[in-house]
């Protein structure tokens, strides 16, 4: 039987342990607004949204080669910039390898899902859509534009492509 092929999200020839900046977007399962609400252009985090924020802030503690930059938790998705720093995956054996972007995001999604499910006494409840969007940031001009987009995202919620009531 032929099954439809999933669209490959990552660049096939790119090493996602490479030092640099990455812009990621992660959507909640079925894009349900489980992370809070926007009032007058300001994101008001609920307990789930606070877990997402705190888990993002913990990434540099868990992974010494990760630095976080600007981010925003939205009602049904998350945008963030992170930097991978260090020697990449081919470092010396006595030095921890830089995790791939996918490894970091998988940890983030797993950690937030576990904490949110624990909070709500839910078992095996899916909180995030499969996969995530990423963009390799190529220069300072791009990172400036992405930071501006992240900063303004709550104020533009009603015209956001992820908007839902």
Question: Your description of this structure?
Answer:
The protein is of the alpha+beta class and 165 residues long. The protein has helices at 47-62, 101-119, 140-152; strands at 20-27, 36-39, 42-45, 66-73, 77-84, 133-137. The strands form 2 sheets. It has a 4-stranded antiparallel beta sheet with strand order 4-5-1-6, sandwiched between helices. Strands 2-3 form a two-stranded antiparallel ribbon. Helix 1 (47-62) runs antiparallel to helix 2. The N and C termini lie far apart (39 Å).
How large a portion of the residues is in β-strands, by DSSP E? Answer: 15-25%
How many E strands?
Answer: 6
Helix percentage = 25-40%
Note the main sheet.
4 strands, antiparallel
Q: Report Rg.
A: 17 Å
How far apart the termini lie comes to 39 Å
List unreliable stretches of 5+ residues. Answer: 3-8
N-to-C order of helices and strands: EEEHEEHEH
Q: In what order do the strands lie side by side in the largest sheet?
A: 4-5-1-6
Envelope shape? globular
């Amino acid at each position: 039987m032929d099954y439809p092929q999933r669209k490959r999200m990552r660049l096939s020839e790119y090493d996602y342990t490479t030092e640099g900046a990455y812009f990621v977007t992660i959507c909640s399962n079925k894009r349900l607004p489980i992370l809070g609400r926007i009032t007058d252009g300001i994101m008001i985090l609920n307990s789930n949204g606070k877990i997402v924020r705190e888990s993002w802030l913990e990434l540099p503690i868990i992974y010494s080669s990760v630095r976080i930059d600007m981010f925003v938790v939205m009602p049904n998705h998350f945008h963030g910039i992170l930097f991978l720093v260090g020697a990449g995956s081919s470092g010396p054996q006595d030095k921890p390898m830089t995790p791939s972007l996918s490894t970091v995001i998988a940890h983030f999604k797993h950690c937030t899902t576990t904490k949110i499910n624990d909070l709500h006494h839910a078992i095996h409840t899916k909180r995030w859509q499969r996969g995530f969007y990423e963009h390799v940031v190529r220069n300072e001009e791009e990172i400036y534009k992405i930071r501006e987009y992240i900063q303004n995202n709550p104020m533009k919620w009603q015209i956001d492509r992820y908007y839902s009531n």
